[in-house]
Amino acid sequence: MAILPDLRFRLRAIFRREALERELDEELRFHLEQEAEKYARTGLSQDEAMRQARLAFGGLEAIKEDARDARGIGWLDTVLRDLRYAVRGIRVAPGFAAAVVLTLGLGIGANAAMFGIIDRLMFRPAPYLHDPARVHRVYLASTWRGKDNVERGYQYTRYLDLARWTTSFSQLAAVAGRTLAVGTGEDAREMNVGAVSATFFGFFDARPALGRFFTEDEDRVPLGTQVAVLSHAFWQARYGGRPDVLGASIQIGPAVYTIIGVAPKGFIGVEDEAPPVAFVPITAYAGVFRSQDPSSYYTTYNWGWLDILTRRNPGVSLATATADLTAAYQRSWEAERALGANMAPLAVARPHAIAAPVQPLRGPLAGQDGQVIAWIGGVALIVLVIACANVANLLLGRALRRRREIAVRLALGVSRGRLLAQLLTESLLLAVLGGVAGLLLAEWGGRVLRAVFLPPGASAGVIGDRRTLVFAAVAALVTGTLAGLAPLLHAGRDDLATTLKSGVREGTYHRSRLRNLLLVFQATLSVVLLVGAGLFVRSLHNVRGMRLGYDVEPLLHVTGNPRGTVLTEEERAALSRRLAEEARTIPGVENAALALTLPFWDTWSQGLYVQGIDSVQRLGQFTLQAGSPEFFRTAGTRILRGRGITSDDRAGAPLVVVVSDAMARVLWPSRDAIGQCLRMNADTMPCITVVGIAENMRQSSLREDAQLHYYLPIEQFHPADASLYVRTRGDAAPYAETVRRRLQALMPGTSYLTVTPLSEIIGAQQRSWRMGATMFVAFGVLALVLAALGLYSVIAYDVTQRRHELGVRAALGARRGDLTRLVVKQGLVFVAAGIGLGGVIALVSGPWVAGLLFDESPYDPVVFGAVAAVLLIVALAATAIPAARAARVDPNIALRFE
């Protein structure tokens, strides 16, 4: 084990350098004195003997260097010397260092914050998840109308089929996140609850912080045991972390559960929304929810509501596992058809399964949010590149000012390699400081980003997150290295003799060409970001200004949760009417109406039959709404022709319907729809007469919605299933809690009301455009500021270097305006070049970004023109100070400058 003594020696050389230096000095002094004594014995004087001994030894410093090299840590001495030199340089020019650190801090901070969010949403495994590479979220797809239709939200029966008919997986679990009222009385609040199968906990290397998880015996059909495992955060917040919580009861939704355990700290399952406050057996939840027919959820395929997780067996490839899932799904498809479901044959539907990553934003249903987040991550990288170019410009300017100093050092014997290493050390030190500043900015300013991208309660702090810290460190080192390349290339290219003989003026302006190229590069990237920002802002304006067929801001949606309170249909209908009447008496409320469905949350459809049309269903998806007579006035939906629902349209009266304009045109393209007959469920059912045409409305999509919608009087359809629309004066959100408290007093037993502003529901549909507009604008402005600073630094530097030339021009009769235009023109030329190149790149990128926009062309000339104007204005502002300085050059001083 000879390596151990050598390792101890090297460690001692690193950590006890001063002691080793003293020992080396003492040893050399001892040998020198011994050699001097030998010369003294020959009769030489003491001084002469010492002189001869020194001559015999040679240079003591050279001996010391050889001894240090033998320790194998000579590189460390070199690095420490370079660091000390770099620190002295920072002290000498604190303003320059601050500019570099702040610039890098902004770029690295923006990227660290975005990396933490993207990593959290798309790449980071769920806490405690064991061997995440083999864990998948299952998606099932089939062909419908020539398109591949991917679903998420499956029946428990489907889960049982896949568990029974697959062999490639060691584990399968059913998972459903539900927003339920937790607690009782005034303490009851709607929170996210995880309904999971008992096999779910086997996917994680997690032990309960208290008690235990539930078992498979407690998760059996039809009605599992009503037990609950609390999240660690909820246990701390609601129960203060008390250990006596085990055995206590908690009401979740309509059922009361017994607390049997507490999950470990940070355990959130695989939810992509708010972290669950509790986990309950999925069969217990389903059995209570389907209390009227508790066997239906596991014997039929009518209720799609859960996700499926799988873990591949070791050695099973993803392709094999996917084929296994597809075969099982096809057997399940046939089983559903055998129960009488109206489904296409296998050859037509071609059902197949997809084993995707657990993170939904990496799955086939990632949608526009995932694309926008990926684009914003790319935008953040562009900001970092702009910051890197800016710093490279600053470092290059500093290197140009130090040309003669560098030439003198080379003339004194410093090798070019040694000099380049020292310059690189300076840039890396500044990059490390910029990385630290960036982390602080990301921790402080990243709260805004986390609020935009992450669900409430999700943690994605920067400080303390190892993955983000590693990313920031790598970004700092790469940025420092790239930014340092410009001065390195310059230092390695200069001719030594020419530089020593030249004055300060000679060749300097010519050699700043690289700075000019970097400046054009920054302007180019800024144009790309600002064009993207303008396009997303216009898209957000379009989507917010779009008429949905109903008002949004003044509406509240009120729905009741019975929580185990049993009422007859008549009692439920009467309760809905009382709630509507009471709501109209609340100050600030203009109107209230009963309704059956809510846009973007739930839809209701029935089979329709129209004389002369073989299949109405082939013409599109027709959705219905049922409302009280006040519905159209409350919702703000306009009646275009005919009439709406009135108080005469009650049970027992002639059946009537109001259809949307789009539905009228599809079903009766050449006739007036009013007075036409519509039948529901069967062509033998009574005729429902069309009495009015309403404006089109968006029910399920802001983009592709056929708007085939019809309205029925709720008293003639399903009065017992009514929810409540409340219209307020102005924005409805401030009224939500007042309305809830007032109406909650009418609710019987433990039943519970939820009041949701419609703006929240619609806002969720606008999220991708809001994210794109917010983040593109933020990063675009940041890029613009960095580009402006880069332009200012280049122009200011050139004015300083051209003082002699400017003085000569002034002496020859140039006016101040001429000198000002000369400098401003230089800046405008750089920016104009960047506008041209950036515009070309933005135009070429148009087809890629077009799918993310809403009613907005990626080639919008207004956006391109506005971006060009902003860049030019910024260029004028950035060159104003250097131009003013150039105009004030005194010819006498400038001519005597050298």
Short summary of the structure?
With 898 residues, this protein is an alpha+beta fold. The protein has 30 helices and 22 strands. The chain folds into four domains: 70 residues, no CATH class; 227 residues, no CATH class; 306 residues, no CATH class; 210 residues, no CATH class.
Q: Assign an overall shape.
A: globular
Alpha plus pi helix count: 30
Helix content: 40-55%
How large is the share of residues in beta strands? 5-15%
Number of domains: 4
Features:
single chain; 898 residues; alpha+beta; 22 strands; 53% helix; 14% strand; globular
What is this structure's SSE topology?
Layout: H1 3-15, H2 17-40, H3 46-57, H4 60-71, H5 74-92, H6 94-123, E1 135-144, E2 147-151, H7 156-165, E3 169-182, E4 189-196, E5 210-211, E6 227-230, H8 232-239, E7 249-252, E8 255-262, E9 278-281, H9 282-289, H10 296-299, E10 307-312, H11 318-338, H12 346-349, E11 352-356, H13 367-401, H14 403-411, H15 416-453, H16 466-493, H17 496-501, H18 508-511, H19 513-545, E12 555-561, H20 569-584, E13 589-595, E14 608-609, E15 623-627, H21 631-635, E16 639-642, E17 656-660, H22 661-667, E18 677-680, E19 688-694, E20 709-713, E21 723-728, H23 736-744, E22 752-757, H24 758-765, H25 767-801, H26 803-811, H27 816-844, H28 846-850, H29 861-887, H30 891-895
Parallel strand pairs: 4-9, 6-8, 15-20, 17-19
Antiparallel strand pairs: 1-2, 1-10, 1-11, 3-4, 3-10, 5-8, 6-9, 7-8, 12-21, 12-22, 13-21, 14-18, 16-19, 17-20, 18-19
